[in-house]
């Protein structure tokens, strides 16, 4: 490798026509270092493996149709740190990819815990976990990622005096670590946990170990949003995880009152609002699919090609990203790929034109 050609020494300000003495001395002093740098090879960038090789250490039935998995590193090394609200992108042996909230304890770096409710018509991932995943099964995960972080009141840029947690059904998986963290930090908190009956409610034994004056367990008749938001004021921050219908009702009720914030996580894709129909051309399959105004492009594609990969269905994980060959994109996603003009997230992105061609 040849040495770089040194630049000319600038002229002196006090001796016109003569080189600057200080800069001449500097060039002489740094010449050996410059020669070493010129002969040093810059190492080629190496790919980073962000996959976690995990193994199922234990499975447990924690409620009717709910199983928990304790996951450990395959090589016994400590697992990456996580914070309440985080989830794992789990890749199952079948190739299905799904996201599951971490519901263990963030301080435990030896294992992760997730819990999965069996859903007969949910795409097959929960059935695979319940019927085929046992202790010793090797799994791959990505993350942890956090799209639903818990903001401790004393660290938030707001005047927050209380935190109210509302969990419905399997939504307790995202909420439970937040409650434990709030209790440990001395936060003024309240928890309402909703379920059909106690047999279907996971981790009740752990919740009964918390301050019961702050916990409300409700089964049977559904509470109204007003009942759930009793006592909430402008200094109360609300965290919710549960079914979409209840989320919609709560958001409407929260909009009518002052709070210090409403934070939530979905377990299902957001509804399509004010959508327009379009034709989606699958280039490699040589197939054209009609996307209705009330359905996502992913739903339309999976009706014809059920093997298409997806995960979050909310526009941030990037699993369903595809290359766009022609047409204009109406973007709704929040993935790192969202600014790529040549791709779209078919779970949430749509078309602004009547026709869109993708590389599928």
Automatic annotation (TrEMBL):
Signal peptide: none annotated. Keywords: 2Fe-2S, Flavoprotein, Iron, Iron-sulfur, Membrane, Metal-binding, Oxidoreductase, Transmembrane, Transmembrane helix. InterPro entries: 2Fe-2S_ferredoxin-like_sf (IPR036010), 2Fe-2S_ferredoxin-type (IPR001041), 2Fe2S_fd_BS (IPR006058), Beta-grasp_dom_sf (IPR012675), FAD-bd_FR_type (IPR017927), FNR_nucleotide-bd (IPR039261), MRET (IPR050415), Riboflavin_synthase-like_b-brl (IPR017938). Residues 49-151 form the FAD-binding FR-type domain. CDD domains: fer2, PDR_like. The chain crosses the membrane at residues 165-187. This is PDR/VanB family oxidoreductase. It comes from the Bacteria. Its cofactor is FAD. Residues 276-360 form the 2Fe-2S ferredoxin-type domain. Pfam families: Fer2.
């Amino acid at each position: 490798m040849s040495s770089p050609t040194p630049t000319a020494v600038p002229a002196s300000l006090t001796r016109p026509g003569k080189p600057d003495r200080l800069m001449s001395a500097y060039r002489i002093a740094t010449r050996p270092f410059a020669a070493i740098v010129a002969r040093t090879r810059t190492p080629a960038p190496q790919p980073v493996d962000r996959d976690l090789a995990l193994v199922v250490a234990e499975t447990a039935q924690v409620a009717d149709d709910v199983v928990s998995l304790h996951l450990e590193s395959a090589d016994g090394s400590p697992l990456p740190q996580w914070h309440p609200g985080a989830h794992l992108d789990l890749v199952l042996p079948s190739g299905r990819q799904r996201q599951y909230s971490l519901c263990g304890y963030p301080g435990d770096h030896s294992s992760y815990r997730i819990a999965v409710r069996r859903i007969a018509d949910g795409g097959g991932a929960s059935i695979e976990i319940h019927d085929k995943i046992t202790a010793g099964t090797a799994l791959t995960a990505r993350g942890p990622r956090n799209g639903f972080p818990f903001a401790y009141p004393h660290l938030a840029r707001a005047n927050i005096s209380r935190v109210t947690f509302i969990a419905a059904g399997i939504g307790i998986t995202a909420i439970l670590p937040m409650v434990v963290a709030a209790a440990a930090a001395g936060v003024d908190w309240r928890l309402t946990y909703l379920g059909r009956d106690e047999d279907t409610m996971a981790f009740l034994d752990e919740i009964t170990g918390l301050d019961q004056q702050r916990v409300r367990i409700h089964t049977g008749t559904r509470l109204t949003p007003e009942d759930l938001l009793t006592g909430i004021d402008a200094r109360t921050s609300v965290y919710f995880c549960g079914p979409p219908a209840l989320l919609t009702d709560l958001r409407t009720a929260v909009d009518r009152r002052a709070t210090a914030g409403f934070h939530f996580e979905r377990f299902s894709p957001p509804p399509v609002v004010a959508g327009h129909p379009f034709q989606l051309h699958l280039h490699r399959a040589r197939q054209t699919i009609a996307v209705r105004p009330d359905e996502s492009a992913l739903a339309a594609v999976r009706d014809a090609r059920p093997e298409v990969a997806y995960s979050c269905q909310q526009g941030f994980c990037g699993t369903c990203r595809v290359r766009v060959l022609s047409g204009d994109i109406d973007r709704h996603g929040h993935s790192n790929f969202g600014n790529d003009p040549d791709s779209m997230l078919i779970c949430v992105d749509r078309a602004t034109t009547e026709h869109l061609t993708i590389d599928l």
